[in-house]
Amino acid sequence: MTLPFNPIDPPGENPRKYHGLYTVEWSRRLAVGTEIFPVIDEQDDAPFIGQFKVQDCLLSQLIDTRLRTSLNGHSEIGPNNFDFGAGDENGKGHAVIRLRPKARRVCYKLTWHRIASPTAAHIHAGPVGVVGPVLVNLKPQAHRFRHRESAGQARGCVRGVVRPLARDLGLHPSGFYVNIHSAPFPDGAIRGNLKR
Asked: E strands, the chain, where?
């Protein structure tokens, strides 16, 4: 994989290529963002190991990103924003979301405990305490779905996810949440906002 990075404070005046996990080309533009990746300079047979900040937006457009969250009933919101506790207070769960921007896919694994059989699962826009619109419909895309008694899991991939959405999810995961719906809780049984 080759990524055009924009590291901070490039050593020397000439562009250099750095090899290791990625190939890095120096630029006079300063980088912004918080992601840090190790690179090795093998130019002139003089290995150099360092860490450099790179542009989050660039990485999010080009490489896979893994997000996760814990799900619970207290995080579900009622008719009014910040009206916590609208979900199944006994319910717990976990979600792992893998963004694959180049393939325009979002893959996922959901697990849940102590809730009725799920009727739907989504990724919504909305920070903690706020109800937002559905952006990605997960459950219909599940190629594995299992529920027994009050627990189960599902996994699958959603195709055709536009790259700007995948980029925004990767850049600002806390502004999005996963929730699982059930018949007793049609507006959402358990919920959790995403994080890296």
From this structure: 17-18, 24-25, 36-41, 48-53, 65-72, 92-100, 105-113, 118-125, 134-137, 142-148, 151-159, 176-182, 190-193
Task: Note whether 167 and 182 are same-domain residues.
Answer: yes
Domain that holds residue 39: 1-63
Q: Structure pTM?
A: 0.71
Q: Indicate the SS3 state at residue 3.
A: coil
DSSP state of 129: T
Of 12, 35, 63, which residue constitutes the final position of a domain?
63
User: Rounded to whole angstroms, how far apart are CA atoms 81 and 168?
Assistant: 22
Q: In this structure, are residues 38 and 32 in contact, taking their beta carbons and an 8 Å threshold? A: no
Where among 63, 86, 116 does a domain terminate? 63
Pick the more confident residue, 134 or 12. 134
